[in-house]
Amino acid sequence: MKVLKFGGTSVGSVKNIINVKNIINDGNKKVVVLSAMSGTTNELVAIASHIKNKNSNEAINKIHKLHEAYSLTIDELLSSKTLNNETKNYVSDVFSLLINSTYKTFSKVLENEILAQGELLSTFMFNCYLKQEGVRSAILPALNFMRIDTAKEPDLPYIKEHLSKVFSAAEASDIYITQGFICLNADKEISNLQRGGSDYTATIIGAAIKAEEVQIWTDIDGMHNNDPRYVENTRPISNLSYDEAAELAYFGAKILHPQTVTPVRSDCIPVRLKNTMNPVAHGTLISSKTAENGIKAIAAKDNITAIKIKSGRMLQAHGFLKKIFEVFEVYETSIDMITTSEVAVSLTIDDDRNLSKIVAELEKFALIEVDKNQSIVCLVGHAVVNHKQTYKLFKILKDVKIRMISYGGSKNNISLLINSNDKVKTLSMLNGYLFELVTL
Q1: Could you count the other beta carbons within 10 Å of the beta carbon of residue 68?
Q2: Which of 120, 158, 127, 168 is nearest to 142 (CA)?
């Protein structure tokens, strides 16, 4: 059995929903993981923010507008009067719940309950549409089997056990539909897998049922060799290894959640990235196989903060690095890049919510310099650090001020820290040399 995940754009309009039905209705049993309709999660985030700031009227206005949009979509999608009424009744209950939320005290639990409604709406509506079209389908409620543990990691033993029970209780069907993104936490409260988490849901389910393949359907022909938002003439990559895909996802390739390949790699379950708008395109196949050596793709990660920690007195002292890392552990802030010299340690973070507290702690034993508005440009490919032409990258970038270099920590990755103002220029220059046969 395959697991197919469709993102928000793929189910963002009636035309696209019909397209998804045509893709999945091929006579083979499968699990279909759906995101919320495009734009819905953003609206729910805004509603939660208004409730948090005690702007009840603004929240209620947004709720009513979103309800109206769903009602119009239902009328366009569902011609069956019975299924149309059934769906509208369900949707009305959801929006009544949201209205009631505006009268409650804001909390993280309430916020997560609000954000969960997008996936619940899309799966119910899509299931009713499949029934109208004569496709045997059933919903597998994600909140009945998807759970994270106290470390916010998927609780795979729990998921496998409860997913099996949910399958057994479901009506025999050709298509099993479930919600991406949403889950329970260790305290049985509604939580989620963060933005882009529907990809993660799909591979967690794929690992739990030992799927033949997991497919991630979006609005682009697979993972590209550079960021098409900033660089012209990019092209999709036909094959990537798990390591290469994970590096690209972590360092800015928006098509994939950074943790997507983790659940399936131990069982060598392939992950295929496909385009809902162009189903015949090959897309990108992610597997345990490694193809050619050298750089395959470039990605960029923005909103990076660089922190330089200088202390000639303590740098060579035993336990100095441990002391630094303990500060970041206390404030639950991960480090992306790190370099050391005889007099300083430089590192980067992408979460600056606790920056002032971190700096205050570090200043107790070192001099601190902070640079914001930085970007990490990541070059990924199998055995890239061993490639004979790698040194030429630094000739290409002779006019770009490189703040840090991470080289050798992974054989598949070279990372450069630059000012964000130089990002587009850097991506274009690298693209010209690496992928457009521009020579030095």
Answers
A1: 11
A2: 120
Beta bridge partners of 31: 3, 176
Q: Are strands 284-287 and 271-275 parallel, antiparallel or unpaired?
A: antiparallel
Residues 395-427 have pLDDT tens digits of: 788 889 999 998 767 778 889 999 999 999 999
CB half-sphere exposure, 319, CA atoms < 13 A: 2
Q: Which of 34, 37, 31 is nearest to 15 (CA)?
A: 37
Domains delineated in the chain: 2-219 (3.40.1160.10), 297-435 (3.30.2130.10)
Q: Which residues pair with 370 in a beta bridge?
A: 307
Ramachandran bin of 42, using left for φ above 0, alpha for ψ from -120 to 50, beta for the remaining angles: alpha
What pLDDT is attached to residue 195? 78
Report the mean per-residue pLDDT for the chain.
91
N residues, the chain: 440
| 354-368 tens-digit pLDDT | 999 999 999 998 999
The Cα 33–Cα 140 span in angstroms is 10
Rounded to the nearest 10 degrees, the angle between the axes of helix 108-132 and helix 40-52 is: 150
Residue 250 corresponds to which tokens in the numbers above?
């972590």
Please, which residues bridge with residue 177 across strands?
32, 139
CB 383 within 8 A of CB 412: yes
Mean pLDDT of 275-281: 93
Give the model's pLDDT for residue 71.
Answer: 97
Q: Which residues of 178-189 are buried (b: 16+ CB within 10 A; e: fewer)?
A: bbbbbbbbeeee
Token pair in block for residue 190: 């509604």
Q: What is the pLDDT of residues 31-43, one digit of tens each?
A: 999 999 999 999 9
Q: For residues 337 and 245, what is the distance between their CA atoms, to the nearest angstrom?
A: 18
| Beta-carbon count within 10 A of 103 CB | 9
pLDDT digits (tens, 9 = 90+) for 177-226: 999 999 999 999 999 998 788 999 999 999 999 999 999 999 889 899 99
Dihedral of the CA atoms 242, 244, 247, 250 (nearest 10)?
A: -60
Whole-angstrom distance, CA of residue 168 vs CA of residue 59? 40
Please give the Cα distance from 241 to 63 (Å, whole number): 43
Task: Say what the pTM is.
Answer: 0.89
Structure tokens at 311: 């202390």
